[in-house]
Amino acid sequence: MSFPPGIRRRFVVSFPLLLLVTLSFAVVATADGASQDDGPELPACNNPFKLVKVKIWVDGVEGEDLSGITASFGASLPEEANKSSKLPAVFSNPLNGCSNSSSKLTGYVALSIRGDCDFVTKAKVAQSGGASALLVINDNEELYKMVCSENDTSLNISIPVVMIPKSADANELFSRLLETRISCSENGMMMLDRMHLSL
């Protein structure tokens, strides 16, 4: 995912500050015949792809919805919105989620961007860091199917994994998170933004 140099620079400068975002997961109904034809059929990699809605709240005020898709691996999400749980979230560092994060992930949803390694690696890194779930921001507008490779025969991913597209809404989410980090650093205070997401 390519962001303008100014945004990347602000992200790196402001990264040490923690931002609290809450995610709650709820699967939106999808077609019964979700296909698995893009990846190998393995026992730990046979989840049907499901469309999800990511709903945003800021200070208790409901915002826009983002569309997402679950991976063919990892934990399933609740079928009903009222059964979803809310979890805090933080950007992984490095942002690509391909190696151990210097951000505290324990109990958080790890946010990362697509690229530089496969989706299973991102999920393994997030899970090993203690993340409760992984939200991947795609580098284009498509909802890409996140599948396993032939080598992932002993896969044990127990957290939900969801992708959202690179869209105006996803970019806005990213920018909003960065703006909050920057405002915290300018004020010299650590403030927790009350932004919530519901998948």
TrEMBL record:
Source species, domain of life: Eukaryota
Single annotated GO MF: aspartic endopeptidase activity, intramembrane cleaving
UniProt topology in membrane: Multi-pass membrane protein
Residue ranges constituting the PA domain according to the UniProt record: 90-167
A biological process from GO: membrane protein proteolysis
InterPro entries: PA_dom_sf, PA_domain, Peptidase_A22B_SPP
Major place of residence: membrane
Cellular component terms per the entry's GO annotation: cytoplasmic side of endoplasmic reticulum membrane; endosome membrane; Golgi-associated vesicle membrane; lumenal side of endoplasmic reticulum membrane; lysosomal membrane
Signal peptide coordinates: 1-31
Intracellular or extracellular location(s): Endosome membrane
Xref: Gene3D superfamilies: 3.50.30.30
Pfam families referenced in this protein's UniProt entry, alphabetically: PA
Keywords: Endosome, Glycoprotein, Hydrolase, Membrane, Protease, Signal, Transmembrane, Transmembrane helix
Function of the molecule: Intramembrane-cleaving aspartic protease (I-CLiP) that cleaves type II membrane signal peptides in the hydrophobic plane of the membrane.
Similarity comment text for this entry: Belongs to the peptidase A22B family.
Protein known as: PA domain-containing protein
Organism: Gossypium barbadense
Native organism taxonomy: Eukaryota, Viridiplantae, Streptophyta, Embryophyta, Tracheophyta
